[in-house]
Design a protein that fits this description.
The chain has a single domain, classed as TIM Barrel, CATH 3.20.20. The protein has twelve helices and eleven strands. The N terminus is likely disordered.
Length: 441
C-alpha cells in the first residue's frame, strides 16, 4: 500500500454474491444495512503482528470484534500477485482466511497492481543480458521518458516512499495486461472463490471484507525532483523526511544519468498518441490511461467471480486536484468496483472531506471506502479527533475504513502508530464496533 508519501508531498508543497452488479457506470448495491468494516493494516495498533496472537491482543483491548451483522473488525493483508512462485500467492490468501476464522476478524486483502514486481524480470529486464529474464522487447513493458522510447531503468521514488530497483510499469502494455488477466483468472480468482465458498458454507460470509485493488497508480514525474544541490533541508520532521526522500532520489538519478523528466510515453504511445500527434493535455491523457488501468484490474476480479461490491479502488485523495494531477479522485469510478481513496486529512482533505462528497454526488452517491486512513494529527494541527474522523467516513456512506500506520520513514511511522493506537483512537474504534453513533465535532 501507499506509505504516506503522496500526502506527505502535499505537506512540503509538492450480501448477494453475484457478478451482475454493474449499473450506471458504478458498482451498484448500496444496502444501508450492509456491514461496516473497520480494518487494521499491519502493523496493528500497539505494534502487534497480524497473526493470531497479535490480533487477539488488539481485540481484547477493544472488547469486541463486532457483531458480524452491522459492524465488524477486520485485518488487512497483501496478495503478492507478482511473485515468481505462484504457489506462495495461494498460500498467502489461504493463510489470511485461516487467521480470519481463528480470530473472528474479517479478512481484507490488498493487491499491489504496479509497484512490487521485482520477481518478474521476465517482464521488465530490457537492459541487462547477465540477469534473469533479459529480453530487449521488455522495453515495451516499462515506461518511457520520451516519444523515442527511452525506457526507464528503475524508479527513484515510488508510492511506497522509497526507490525501487525495478522500472516503472507501462500500464497498458499488451503483455502486462495479458499477464494480469492470467494471474487473476488462473491463480488468485479460483483461490478466493474457494475460500469465500467455505465461509458461505459456515454462514460466515461476514469474515470476507473484500479487496483493495491498487496501490495509488500514477505516472512518476521526475522533473519535480531538483538536482541534489538545490534540495533544501526543511525545518520539521515530516518535511525533513520528504526532503530526505528527494535527496536520495536525486542521488540515484545522478548515478544513472537519468533524465529529470516525466514518464508515461509508453502508455501514451499505446493509446494512439505520438510525436506528431501529442495529446492536447498530457496530464488528462495520462489520467485516462490510469483510469483504464484501474478499471482493467477491477474487471479481472469481477470476471473471476468476485462481486464488485467487495472490490475497492485505491487512489490518493489529498494531492491537489489540479491540471498537473494524473491520478485525480475522479478516476476511481467504474462499473467493477466501489470507489476507494487514501483519506489522510491533508492537502485537499485538510478541512473535511467535501471534495470526496462532491465527487460521490456526481456519481449517484455510491458506497465507498477510506481504504488507507489515519487522522495524521501529528502533521495537521487542525486534524479532527478520531471519532470525528471516523464519522467523516461512516456517516457519509463509507462501508470500510482501513487504518494504516505503515511508512518508509521511521519517524513518520512512529507518529502514525502513536496516534492510531492512542486512547482517543481506541475509544473511537470501540464506540464504532459497539454500534454507537459517531459524533462529528
Amino acid at each position: 500500500m501507499r506509505k504516506f508519501v503522496a500526502t506527505l508531498a502535499v505537506v512540503v508543497g509538492l450480501f448477494t454474491w453475484s457478478k451482475a452488479c454493474v449499473a450506471g457506470g458504478t458498482c451498484s448495491t448500496n444496502d444501508p444495512n450492509e456491514i461496516e468494516y473497520l480494518i487494521f493494516w499491519p502493523p496493528l495498533p500497539g505494534g502487534n503482528l497480524p497473526d493470531v496472537s497479535g490480533i487477539n491482543t488488539v481485540a481484547a483491548k477493544l472488547g469486541t470484534t463486532g457483531d458480524g451483522k452491522t459492524r465488524q473488525l477486520g485485518v488487512g493483508g497483501g496478495i503478492p500477485v507478482w511473485l515468481s512462485d505462484e504457489a506462495k500467492i495461494v498460500q498467502e490468501i489461504k493463510a489470511r482466511f485461516a487467521i480470519a476464522k481463528q480470530t473472528n476478524t474479517a479478512a481484507h486483502l490488498l493487491v499491489d497492481d504496479h509497484i512490487g514486481w521485482d520477481e518478474r524480470p521476465d517482464l521488465w529486464n530490457w537492459y541487462d543480458p547477465k540477469r534473469r529474464g533479459y529480453n530487449p522487447d521488455n522495453r515495451k513493458n516499462v515506461e518511457w521518458y520520451d516519444w523515442d522510447g527511452s525506457p526507464n531503468k528503475r524508479r527513484y521514488i515510488t508510492p511506497d516512499g522509497a526507490a525501487s530497483q525495478t522500472p516503472h510499469m507501462c500500464y497498458n502494455s499488451p503483455a502486462i495486461q495479458k499477464e494480469i488477466s492470467r494471474i487473476i483468472s488462473q491463480v488468485v480468482g479460483p483461490t478466493l472463490r474457494q475460500e469465500i465458498d467455505k465461509l458461505k458454507q459456515q454462514n460466515s460470509e461476514y469474515l470476507f471484507a473484500g479487496i483493495t485493488v491498487g496501490a495509488e497508480a500514477g505516472f512518476d514525474d521526475y522533473s519535480v525532483i531538483s538536482i541534489l544541490s538545490q534540495i533544501p533541508r526543511a525545518p520539521n520532521p515530516e518535511q525533513m523526511a520528504m526532503a530526505k526522500m528527494l535527496r536520495q532520489a536525486a542521488t540515484l538519478m545522478d548515478e544513472d544519468k537519468a533524465p529529470h523528466g516525466r514518464l508515461g510515453y509508453c502508455s501514451l504511445t499505446n493509446a494512439g498518441y505520438g510525436n506528431t500527434n501529442p495529446p492536447k493535455d498530457i496530464n488528462q491523457a495520462l489520467a485516462n490511461v490510469n483510469q483504464k488501468f484501474i478499471e482493467f484490474w477491477d474487471k479481472q476480479f469481477v470476471d473471476a467471480g468476485i462481486p464488485c461490491f467487495r472490490i475497492y479502488t485505491h487512489v490518493a485523495a489529498a494531492p491537489l486536484q489540479d491540471d498537473n494531477n494524473n491520478a485525480p479522485i475522479s478516476i476511481v469510478f467504474n462499473p467493477y468496483a466501489r470507489p476507494g481513496w487514501t483519506t489522510y486529512p491533508l492537502g485537499t482533505l485538510a478541512n473535511r472531506f467535501q471534495p470526496l462528497y462532491d465527487e460521490l454526488s456526481k456519481h449517484g452517491n455510491p458506497t465507498w471506502g477510506g481504504v488507507e486512513a489515519n487522522n495524521a494529527a501529528f502533521t495537521n494541527p487542525n486534524a479532527p479527533d478520531w471519532e470525528t474522523y471516523l464519522g467523516w467516513h461512516y456517516n457519509h456512506g463509507a462501508k470500510l475504513v482501513g487504518i494504516n500506520v505503515g511508512a518508509s520513514d521511521q519517524s513518520i511511522m512512529s507518529s502514525l502508530s502513536k496516534g492510531a493506537s492512542g486512547d482517543e483512537a481506541m475509544a473511537a474504534y470501540r464506540k464504532f464496533l459497539k454500534g454507537e453513533k459517531l459524533i462529528e465535532k
